[in-house]
Write a structure and sequence with these properties.
five-stranded parallel β-sheet, 10% strand, 2 domains
């Protein structure tokens, strides 16, 4: 119990430090400090329980979804060496190849960008309903305890909102990252990151430092 409490306290300290740094650099985000900490805590809890993140958006927000996955599935700023047990198992499969793999591979945090299933997306959009291209994937990948992160600058992207509805129905926690007001997505969020801008490019300019701070905080909480 003592060890668990100490780990939790270290994680909270890492998250708080990243949020302080973010707000110092981007004062406009100060009102979102508690929500950003909440998003970090949701993700740390999920990853430590062996759960995963599903993330999506459209256009520039789709690129942001891919970017988030890139920061989580490999080392961001910290070294993520494999556990000794896994290194031994790799070497046990093939001494030379396994040793090389053990040295180069990194621990990843399981995250899936729903934007990348191009054949599935086009098939479902053509055969069923284009508004449900992400919801269908949430139903296929999602499970209670996972986290869904929907990105929409307006908060009204139908495919993102429908995916959030599916996520809530399955017992996933929902992070919504939007512009001012939150749009239709706000209703379905456990944590709402609604930046104080309305123009698309200005919203996106504030989304990037938020998700960088979140990924940094989560990595530090788990791998420090």
């Amino acid at each position: 119990m003592k060890e668990s409490t100490e780990v939790k306290m270290r994680a909270e300290a890492q998250i708080a430090e990243r949020v302080r740094t973010l707000v110092y650099r981007y004062p406009a985000l100060a009102p979102l400090g508690a929500e950003i900490r909440g998003a970090c805590e949701l993700l740390v809890t999920a990853f430590e329980a062996g759960r995963k993140l599903l993330v999506c958006g459209n256009g520039g927000s789709a690129a942001d979804a891919d970017h988030i996955v890139g920061e989580l599935m490999k080392s961001f700023v910290l070294r993520r060496a494999l556990a000794p047990e896994l290194r031994e198992k790799l070497v046990g499969q093939d001494t030379e190849m396994g040793a090389r793999m053990a040295e180069s591979l990194q621990q990843g945090l399981p995250a899936i960008a729903l934007t990348q299933a191009h054949s599935l997306i086009s098939a479902f959009a053509n055969d069923a309903d284009p508004a449900l291209i992400y919801a269908q994937q949430v139903l296929g990948y999602g499970a209670a305890g996972d986290v869904f992160w929907g990105i929409s600058t307006s908060g009204n992207a139908k495919n993102v909102v429908h995916a959030a509805v599916a996520a809530r129905a399955l017992g996933l926690k929902v992070i919504g990252m939007t512009g001012e007001g939150g749009g239709a997505l706000a209703k379905f969020c456990d944590v709402r990151l609604a930046v104080p801008e309305r123009e698309t490019y200005k919203v996106q300019e504030l989304h990037l430092p938020i998700y960088h701070a979140i990924c940094l905080a989560v990595e530090a909480s788990i791998f420090s």
